[in-house]
């Protein structure tokens, strides 16, 4: 506000000459305001009027997720329902029946079906909206503490009363009411721990830190002293980004990051109290902006059904037109002599034959309206909900270890699971466990194989395989109470720990318990351990004698720096996620002693904020190390430590105890930290401005953490800038992919060129060897900065940090400037094991006709060996399209694609056995428009495709290319945030609830605990869902057409007058009530093949891929069958009652009854699996019909004037002819279909017998004389794949 007033004063004083400048300045200001938000403290404007508050334009914190109000419900709900064309059609037909000239039924009765359908949907929507209203009311009336200037304290108010600019006090285990900028925390380290499970599904705690300018407060935060202004970005839905800066009264600006923002919906943990200012409220919070609701997709079967609905409309119009022409000709034959039963016009005059035909055309649309199934859409929704319920409750898709089960997040594409043709899969975490195990490393050109650790892991693998064998044979694990072996005891402890965590309800805890016990206890390599001890002891000796560490040999320096980098170059947090941080109370004497120790021993500093701060502070300081364990977790700085102790009301000081549990954002980081711990290089604590490690002989060292340059998919590395406590140098430690680290290694110096070149060459050879063994490789490097270099880089980096627009690009450029000319320390090899059942699952999916592509960001050697292990590739099949440079990649790709296309587009064998491997650099050119068709032709002819070193964007581009060009059904499956774009592009997206968070799950249509569950989801549930819905839709079309055709045949005997021999009550409610329930039961429970058979014979899945259950000709065959059955059901009663003198309804009611029996019997013929629910539904339908008929005919003598349905069904039940017709007519109508089904069943039996013979032959092969199998020996081995490749006969 002050700035605005100042600008106005300047404008007023310049006069008219500066008017253009003022306008230009105002335009710039408006542009700036449109991109940023300025937040002031509300307590500064409590006395001002509402229209003067600078935050008045921002949304309040009241949320409203309901769609309707009492006044808008009816019109808005009807408007939404009329978006469905079928509802508009039926309302039009019902309203058309109100026109006297063309009406066919009683207008009120004609409205009943459509009103019923609309009412059911409206009641469902109303109930859902009412539940949302109750939830909104409960949330809006939750309490929170807001500072009141009038009362000078925090007062309780409702969430809905919270406004942007309010100061909020947050307490432990409290849910955040809005997006709050953290200004103060009771935590001694100025941290606040939050749980973000409601946002991203991750249950591990995350740290948020106080804004830098409020970091060193000497006392508690006082809102009345707050005079700063916050400028940040506009509200958006990006949970991982927050940009802005805070402007203080003295003009100083401090950057704001996502680590300073607490998001609405998160829960405060391990922090007794925190204070912040509201930045975004209500519907402008990031949580509400991400609340998009369930996804809606249209399935392939639904699109085919809409085409057939269109054909039904065409048939309806043809029947109406035929009837209208027939009526016109019938009227024309009378000439001027009008029949006595002729219907006059509304004016009372005679109608011409043409007008009569036109009116009758509209009348027949009303009569034949049943041809368009009004209940089909509602029935499909009900069946899909039931299918989702049964899939969700399948116990075989439940993983007990992590207490997770399959989730159906998209309710309307279950049938698409049975029609998949291409599967695109991620590798890490999807095909593999993503539980990283440290296996090998190389330091300073020397390789350490860790053989003892490999033997320990092999022992665990044997124990796990024995457990799995016990489960597969015995069904349950035997009791281990009496087991005495050390290995078995550890397995029991692991399982018990997992169960205890599962009882707490935390899936993440169960996973963590199962991982830690097996993979964190690493057996160190003896040779490397001796070198670490030797190095640390020498450094301790030099430190004690105040000798320079530069005299230490370079090999030993590299070793200790290697493990320091493993320990601190990460985001691993030492925390206690299950309980609040404990306090240790000291008496006054202990407090004084403690303060003296703080002042005399420690000189810890906060992060660098400005250039002036850097120049003022950058002087050598004493070593921040101590062997005293009680001093390991002291407060951050002298001033803050003293003030926090002295300001305590009880004059008691606090000392935070750190738990030894470590939380990592990725399994790679955790594996490296535990590897360093095996060599006694332990991570003790991590705070915003320091990292504390414990080294052998050196004790605990506190590295001042100046900057953290996080990992991103473009740089493929992360770096930390620290001040080394032993050398007092600014050191950069970098960890990343070998493909990028090796390119930024410093060229060898003149003096040590031979040695450095040898180390780089050896390290590269070891990296290739690790990759060939299927290990994930990382390179470790460092760089020492001089004061001048760091000051120059820091100046531009601080400018990038405080920028709002383009901050990510500026920070990226800043990181690139720092990460150059690195010194190579070594490399690591981490093993990522295959998930159980992955090779078998891939083999089954291949037999089912599914093409499997793997899209991964790993390097080529690792990806290829994983592909060999999971049987995606075979050792004689791979064809590589890879190159080392951009220009070479383009030329190489063009030549190879042309050659391969010429050789593979027209293969002689029906099954292609070539596997294609392509890297990301080459893939970028393959996706170019000039080459994408040729690349796709080559890839399509291959058995498998493996894309390595691919980016998230390339993954989505590959899926989109295959889906759009080949017009096939695609499924994408992954577990990480880098798979989200691929999952969203595919027809069906599947997320794995693995180790990399829940972003993939939240973006998916289905979520699975493991990749192997995909086999049953597709081959069993997918096949069933597709088969059930396809047959149900065809049955709907048949049933409606058969019933409508009965009235059509009657038009030939009533002068095409639009009359019906079926009572209008039966005509209206036949499909809606009498025949609705059995088809719902069959569509939900019918199984054409058992689950065991579908998994044993994956080839049966091809029927869904080829749409064999729902082909266009099947619709027409059902229509022909429907018209044939209607002919039988019409003419047999017609000839039976000919010349009998019965009235119209006495003849029409048997036809209605026969039609019902025929339709139900037809459903029985098509049902493959009979349950008690099928029998019950059919009996219920028959009983319902006769109950309604008896009641209606007994109580409604004048419902259909001038006809009289009174006592019709009662008389028919006394007539033996009625029973004879009900038996002979359905049997005659279904005779052709029954014969066809018998012939089809016999042919299927022969095929099944042939398949059984093939299966038995495969299980017991008979070797041919003189022929021997030749085993294909692999060129490389992979540790997970321990069985030999299959022999070829």
UniProtKB/TrEMBL annotation:
Entry protein name: Phospholipid-transporting ATPase
Keyword Transmembrane: yes
Renumbered residue ranges of the record's region Disordered: 1-37, 472-513, 622-663, 1261-1289
Domain P-type ATPase C-terminal: 1001-1240
Protein species of origin: Neogobius melanostomus
Swiss-Prot/TrEMBL catalytic activity: ATP + H2O + phospholipidSide 1 = ADP + phosphate + phospholipidSide 2; a beta-D-glucosyl-(1<->1')-N-acylsphing-4-enine(out) + ATP + H2O = a beta-D-glucosyl-(1<->1')-N-acylsphing-4-enine(in) + ADP + phosphate + H(+)
Active site: 426 (4-aspartylphosphate intermediate)
GO cellular component terms listed in the entry, alphabetical order: endoplasmic reticulum membrane; phospholipid-translocating ATPase complex; plasma membrane
Topology within the bilayer: Multi-pass membrane protein
Composition bias, Low complexity: 622-645
Residues that coordinate or bind Mg(2+): 426, 428, 975, 979
Gene Ontology terms for molecular function: ATP binding; ATP hydrolysis activity; glycosylceramide flippase activity; magnesium ion binding
TM stretches of this protein: 85-103, 109-127, 309-334, 354-378, 1033-1053, 1115-1138, 1144-1163, 1175-1195
Entry similarity comment: Belongs to the cation transport ATPase (P-type) (TC 3.A.3) family. Type IV subfamily.
């Amino acid at each position: 506000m002050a700035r605005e007033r100042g600008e106005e004063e300047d404008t007023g004083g310049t006069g008219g000459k500066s008017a253009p400048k003022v306008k230009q300045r105002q335009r710039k200001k408006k542009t700036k305001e449109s991109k940023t938000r300025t937040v002031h403290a509300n307590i500064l404007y409590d006395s001002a009027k509402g229209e003067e508050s600078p935050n008045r334009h921002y949304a309040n914190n009241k949320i409203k997720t309901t769609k309707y109000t009492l006044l808008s419900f009816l019109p808005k709900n009807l408007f939404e329902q009329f978006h469905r064309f079928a509802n508009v059609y039926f309302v039009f037909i019902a309203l058309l029946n109100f026109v006297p000239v063309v009406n066919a039924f009683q207008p009120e009765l004609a409205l009943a079906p459509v009103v019923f359908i609309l009412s059911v949907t409206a009641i469902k929507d109303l109930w859902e909206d009412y539940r949302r209203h109750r939830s909104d009311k409960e949330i809006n009336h939750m309490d929170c503490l807001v500072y009141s200037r009038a009362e000078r304290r925090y007062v309780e108010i409702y969430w809905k009363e919270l406004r942007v600019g309010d100061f909020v006090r947050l307490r432990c285990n409290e849910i955040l009411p809005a997006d709050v900028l953290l200004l103060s925390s009771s935590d001694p380290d100025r941290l606040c721990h939050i749980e973000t499970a409601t946002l991203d599904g991750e249950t591990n705690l995350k740290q948020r830190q106080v804004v830098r300018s409020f970091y060193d407060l000497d006392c508690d935060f006082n809102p009345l002293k707050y005079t700063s202004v916050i400028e940040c970005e506009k509200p958006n839905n990006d949970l991982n980004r927050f940009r802005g800066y805070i402007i203080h009264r003295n003009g100083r600006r401090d950057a704001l990051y996502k680590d300073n923002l607490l998001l609405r919906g998160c829960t405060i943990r391990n922090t007794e109290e925190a204070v912040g200012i509201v930045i975004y409220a209500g519907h402008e919070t990031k949580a509400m902006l991400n609340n998009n609701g369930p996804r809606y997709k249209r399935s392939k079967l639904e699109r085919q059904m809409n085409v057939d609905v269109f054909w039904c409309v065409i048939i309806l119009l043809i029947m109406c037109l035929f009837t209208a022409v027939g009526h016109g000709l019938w009227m024309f034959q009378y000439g001027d002599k009008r029949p006595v039963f002729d219907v006059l016009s509304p004016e009372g005059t005679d109608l011409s034959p043409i007008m009569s035909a036109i009116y009758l055309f509209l009348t027949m649309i009303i009569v034949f309206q049943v041809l368009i199934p009004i209940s089909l859409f509602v029935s499909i929704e009900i069946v899909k909900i039931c299918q989702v319920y049964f899939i969700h409750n399948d116990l075989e898709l439940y993983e007990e270890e992590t207490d997770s089960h399959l989730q159906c997040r998209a309710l309307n594409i279950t049938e698409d699971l049975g029609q998949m043709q291409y599967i695109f899969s991620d590798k890490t975490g999807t095909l593999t466990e993503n539980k990283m195990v440290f296996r090998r490393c190389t330091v300073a050109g020397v390789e350490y194989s860790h053989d003892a650790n490999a033997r320990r892991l092999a022992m665990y693998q044997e124990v796990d395989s024995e457990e799995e064998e016990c489960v597969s044979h015995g069904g349950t694990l035997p009791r281990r109470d009496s087991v005495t072996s050390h290995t078995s005891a550890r397995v029991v402890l692991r399982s018990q720990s997992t169960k205890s965590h599962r009882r707490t309800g935390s899936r993440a805890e169960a996973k963590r318990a199962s991982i830690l016990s097996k993979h964190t206890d690493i057996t160190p390599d003896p040779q490397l351990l001796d070198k670490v001890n030797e190095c640390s002891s020498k450094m301790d000796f030099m430190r004690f004698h105040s000798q320079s560490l530069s005299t230490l040999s370079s090999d030993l320096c590299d070793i200790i720096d290697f493990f320091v980098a493993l320990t601190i170059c990460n985001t691993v947090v030492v925390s206690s996620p299950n309980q609040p941080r404990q306090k240790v109370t000291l008496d006054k004497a202990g407090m004084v002693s403690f303060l003296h120790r703080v002042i005399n021993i420690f000189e810890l500093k906060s992060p660098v904020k400005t250039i002036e701060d850097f120049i003022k502070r950058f002087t050598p300081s004493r070593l921040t190390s101590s062997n005293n364990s009680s001093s390991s977790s002291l407060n951050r700085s002298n001033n803050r430590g003293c003030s926090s102790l002295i300001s305590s009301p009880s004059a008691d000081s606090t000392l935070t105890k750190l738990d030894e549990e470590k939380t990592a954002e990725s399994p790679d980081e955790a594996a490296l930290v535990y590897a360093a711990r095996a060599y006694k290089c332990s991570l003790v604590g991590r705070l915003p401005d320091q990292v504390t490690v414990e080294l052998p002989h050196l004790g605990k060292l506190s590295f001042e953490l100046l900057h953290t340059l996080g990992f991103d998919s473009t740089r493929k590395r992360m770096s930390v800038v620290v001040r080394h406590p032993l050398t007092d140098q600014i050191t950069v430690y970098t960890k990343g992919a070998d493909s990028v680290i090796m390119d930024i290694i410093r060229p060898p110096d003149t003096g040590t060129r031979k040695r450095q070149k040898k180390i780089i060459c050896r390290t590269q050879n070891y990296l290739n060897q690790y990759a060939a063994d299927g290990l994930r490789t990382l390179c470790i490097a460092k760089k020492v900065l001089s004061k001048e270099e760091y000051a120059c880089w820091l100046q531009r980096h601080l400018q990038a940090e405080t920028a709002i627009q383009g901050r990510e690009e500026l920070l990226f450029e800043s990181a690139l400037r720092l990460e150059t000319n690195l010194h190579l320390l070594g490399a690591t090899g981490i093993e990522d094991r295959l998930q159980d059942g992955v090779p078998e699952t891939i083999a089954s999916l291949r037999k089912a006709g599914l093409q499997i592509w793997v899209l991964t960001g790993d390097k080529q050697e690792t990806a290829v060996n994983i592909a060999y292990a999971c049987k995606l590739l075979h050792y004689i099949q791979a064809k590589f399209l890879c190159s080392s440079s951009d220009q070479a990649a383009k030329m190489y790709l063009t030549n190879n694609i042309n050659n391969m296309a010429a050789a593979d587009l027209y293969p002689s064998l029906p099954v292609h056995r070539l596997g294609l491997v392509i890297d990301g650099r080459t893939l970028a050119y393959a996706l170019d428009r000039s080459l994408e068709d040729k690349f796709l032709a080559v890839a399509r002819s291959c058995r498998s495709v493996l894309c390595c070193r691919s980016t998230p964007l390339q993954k989505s581009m590959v899926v989109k290319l295959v889906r759009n060009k080949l017009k096939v059904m695609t499924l994408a499956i992954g577990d990480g945030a880098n798979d989200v774009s691929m999952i969203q592009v595919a027809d069906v997206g599947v997320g794995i609830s693995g180790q990399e968070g829940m972003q993939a799950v939240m973006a998916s249509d289905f979520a699975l605990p493991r990749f192997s569950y995909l086999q049953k989801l597709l081959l069993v549930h997918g096949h069933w869902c597709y088969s059930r819905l396809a047959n149900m839709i065809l049955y709907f079309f048949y049933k409606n057409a058969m019933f409508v055709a009965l009235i059509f045949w009657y038009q030939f005997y009533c002068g095409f007058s639009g009359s019906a021999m079926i009572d209008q009550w039966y005509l209206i409610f036949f499909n809606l009530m009498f025949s609705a329930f059995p088809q719902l039961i069959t569509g939900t429970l019918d199984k054409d093949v058992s689950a065991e058979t579908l998994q044993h014979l994956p080839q049966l899945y091809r029927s869904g891929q080829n749409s064999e259950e729902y082909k266009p000709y099947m619709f027409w065959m059902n229509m022909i069958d429907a018209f044939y059955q209607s002919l039988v059901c019409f003419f047999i009663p017609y000839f039976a009652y000919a010349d009998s003198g019965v009235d119209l309804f006495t003849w029409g009611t048997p036809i209605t009854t026969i039609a019902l029996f025929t339709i139900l019997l037809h459903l029985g013929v098509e049902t493959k699996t009979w349950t008690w629910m099928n029998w019950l539904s059919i009996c219920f339908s028959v009983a319902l019909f006769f109950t309604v008929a008896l009641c209606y005919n007994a109580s409604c003598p004048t419902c259909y004037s001038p006809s009289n349905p009174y006592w019709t069904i009662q008389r028919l039940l006394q007539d033996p002819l009625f029973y004879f017709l009900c038996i002979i007519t359905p049997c005659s109508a279904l005779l052709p279909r029954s014969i066809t089904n018998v012939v089809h069943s016999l042919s299927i039996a022969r095929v099944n017998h042939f398949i059984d013979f093939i299966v038995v032959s495969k299980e017991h092969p008979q070797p041919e004389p003189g022929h021997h199998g030749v085993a294909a020996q692999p060129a490389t081995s992979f540790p997970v794949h321990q069985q030999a490749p299959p022999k070829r006969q």
